Amino acid sequence: MTSALTPAPHDTGAAPVLLQGRGIGKTYAARVLAGVDFDLRAGEVLALTGENGAGKSTLSKIVAGLVPPTHGTLALAGEPFAPASRQDAEKLGVRMVMQELSLVPTLSVAENLLLGRLPQRLGFIRGDALNEAAARQMALIGLDDIDPRLPVSALGVGYQQMVEIARSLVGECRLLILDEPTATLTTREIAHLFRQIELLKARGVAIVYISHRLDELQQVADRVMVLRDGRHIDTRPMRELTQADIVRSMVGRDVHEGLDRERRPQGPVRLRVNRMTRGTVVRDVSFALHAGEVMGLAGLVGSGRTELLRLIYGADRKDSGSLQRGEPERERELVVKSPMQAVRAGIGLVTEDRKSQGLLLPQSIRVNATLANLGAVSRRGWLRRAEEQAEVQRLRDLLRVRSDSIEQPVNQLSGGNQQKVVFARWLHRDCDILLLDEPTRGVDIGARADIYAQIDKLAAAGKALLMVSSDLRELMSQCDRIGVMSAGRLVRIFERGEWSEQLLLEAAFSAYTEAEKHAAQEQLA
Amino acid sequence: MTSSKPLTTRAALTSAVGTVAGLLVALALMVGFFSWQSQYFFTADTFVTIANDIPATAVTAVGMTFVLIIAGIDLSVGSTMALAAAVAGIAMLQWHLSLLPATLLAMGVGVVVGAINGAITVAWRLPSFIVTLGMLEMARGAAYLATDSRTQYIGGKIDWLGKPVVAGLSPAFFIAVVIVALAQVVLTRTVFGRSLVGIGTNEEAMRLAGVDPRPIKVAVFAIAGLLAGLGGVFLSSRLEAADPNAGTGAELVVIASVVIGGTSLMGGRGSVASTFFGVLVISVLEAGLAQIGASEPTKRIITGCVIIIAVVLDMLRERRKKSA
Which residue range(s) make up the domain with B122? Predict the structure, then answer.
């Protein structure tokens, strides 16, 4: 069979530039990438890092042919490189391993590896040839302990990831993009992955390595490229950098922000969260939420913030932990096993994805706004149309929802106005505790200000608000306290005045190293 | 703000009336065509026959409308009709119950069958298609058991329901019309009706808004069973007998009527009033084709075409509304 890998250039001293990008930019509704220049050499690992939304995935998707750039040009080994599709890029040896695995779980490892190029005779798969080819392929990256005949679903997530990588090496591979490859791996598997990366480097494969885990970069990266707000900030050899340097480039400046706002007066405890745990997603999280305050939850994507909100709200089942209302001396446990109980207990949730989880899209503003409190606009199960209309009209004016009328279907509204309808629902319900998951995602600046004003009003009215956001500046300007989650743990709660973007980010990264230590301990035990 | 209100109210009104208007046009066209083709079609007799023919399908279709609105389906209604009719027959023949208690008993059987459908669907989060497909067989089997696999002749005790009382129309027809009207009001004017539309549109969003979809879904299947039970009794009253084969394939006619009425199989959208017109479309078509002497195979082919055309037209209309 043909070797999966191009022969290694042995003069590793001054490796040729394999991929060159000049002025790469991408604009969707907003600009997400602007004027990024970079060089990638054969046989090197270039780490790509930055905050949530810095443009890492967009850049890697452009290189892998998943999306075309709106500006700039790429050159692969000197030739212009403008892949029209992922298949196009793969033909030229540029491959990407995505965070979400794309394996077919019911098929065998061998079938997955060679999917689309199965050895066949008269339409029948040649099983022996298939398994042999697969075994050879896996041996290339030191994966000889897996039986290629096993179904992929029988493997752990770590091994599935390895199979995914092995698959990307079938055929020619000159450039491999790994997007958060260690997110689901144990320490041992990570070590294994790093050995594979060394093997690939020795063969001259260029690797783009995207990761949140700064300690990993020190082990695996040759150079580090930092993006911020879609712009290229810095690319430097790893050995010249410390973790703090990298974070500083990601943040941009080392200043305290949002100090202009007064801390809101903190009322009594409204909700006490005790040792909330779900698998490894949310681990042992405890904190208290006070009346009249807005508490933020910062953290990287996947750090367990959304999951924590969903546990509090009863939307997912918790392994352990409890909720309590008020001060500990009153010791009243709050049982919330379902969203129904949560709503009855005065808790509301503005979901992260309003389209799939928040709204009835084809239905009107009126129907959506009263959904959580139909009892208030009905008598003995019969809806009071006039009351409902008056109520929704009032909410619409209060929140300044821009629409033709309250009968307009919400799928005709802009993102900001849709989000206001979700807020209207919880205002109508008059919750004491409001959980906000990315409340301004996809919301334009005008509507954003309206939503902030509403949050202020709610806090002033003595409500307790808990707000998840990936936008640190938003958290710093809106919140009185910010809890930082990292690898499922609530690692620290900052008081207003204590925080800076740098400190928050460092906290957000902090538990990932600990998590690995923990995993290692578990394996030893 | 208020100035734009009448405009959209009108828009909402036209869209609701749109389906019914379309169905009325279709009905008028069919009546015109059949009257042109057969001199006997446009007579009071024909319309009275149609009116007395539809109650069983109409009440069952009301329940089916609710089920489709929550994005479910109930394939067991035909068998449930037969089982309920069998129980009513046995109750009248062997236990000497009169018509009313026997009918209530039959509806009770329907509720039990429907509640089982709903409970299994909800408890194990199964597709209602599969659950009710199983129930289709079970209820049919039970109907055979109850009737000893023979058609039980009931006679005069039950024919009151199907006999003309006013202007040639039967009590069954009036009951069906009242049920259609009531169900339409429930759908548009109650919290329950609102919840059905919500569950069919986005069940997860309903759950996260604090509305428990599970009891509502069970109730919907129970209502579908209840109405199929009543439909079964109506069917018996026409036959004056409890036939274990009654209602075979009725689920398909019922679903077709509901879909012709513009209710979406994907859930979240539907109207009981339009369902009633959907039922009319199918029965006028059947009656008309019979009158102009179409053979059984031709009738079935044409009915099939009409179902597909109706759904295509409705879909095009919805798409236009969305893009507008």
Answer: 42-323
